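Read as chain and fold; for instance:
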Amino acid sequence: MAKVAVMGGGSFGTAIAVVFADSGQDVSLWTLEADAAAEINASHTNEKYHPGITLPESIRAGTDQAEALQGAEIVLLAVPAQTIGENLRAWHELITGDPLVVSVMKGIELGTMRRMSQVIEEDGGIRADRIAVISGPNLAREVAQRQPAATTVASVDPNRAMQLQDALTTDYFRPYFTTDVVGTEIGGSVKNVVALANGMAVGQGFGENAQSSLITRGLAEMSRLGEALGANPLTFLGLAGMGDLIATCTSPLSRNRTFGENLGKGLSVEETIAITNQTAEGVKSCEPIVALAKAHGVEMPIAEQVVNVVKNGMPPSKILSALMSRATKPEQGQL
């Protein structure tokens, strides 16, 4: 049994706390919301994010950061990607000992173009070999329902990756480990942007041909960027690449697909944000992802068009025409 501090009581933070608890770990769940903490402790539910699901009674929730982090051997960060630097600077002195610090955040930081593991290392003062990331086809609702799922856990230290793998293994949740942190993070970040584009296609009534084309070419963009940053290309054929991409692009449970679908149906970005209960990371990460690609000479036309819609006010109806009018080229060798 390991002491696990899950920092973030939202949709995925709650879901991953369920997995840790079911695997026999000692779980403290930190949340900003006192009402949510009281509900989790008293009735073992989190109706705001997971209505109708009973959580393990062993999960302890609270709003005291120091209490949650005290003695933690695994610290899992499940807060919005764009807030993690600020949070880590506040929590730095509370993270004591030599815990494994784990990111489930799938985004790239605005302004700096840093991956989440880089933010953790630089802003949190955490050594790279003490950092791990989790990414895969893990829709929070299905994980909380204990439906079968697999995921990728990555750390530059294989022993740390296996430590996390052991702590998360249950009869319904199967982690695979890798040392390719870069590929795992790029897969998790880029798939959100592709899901926004695919959602826009769905919202406009486009069929399976258009969606399959977007998903496949989105995988190509993900792979190009990842390889330029030093990732293993095989990572993008696995759970953190194609697996997560399929789930996020095709499921109505996906926040990013749903966000894109609302845009495709004619809602503005502001209107869609107003009716969205949870963070759609691709909305904020699309711009730094494109900036990161340009800095490394990588073409990402789908991501660029998502930025045009989300940031520059282009109608979603123009995305496919912009992509279809690009110069033709061979597929093989031109991923």
Observations:
- The chain is about 50% helix and 10% strand.
- The radius of gyration is 19 Å.
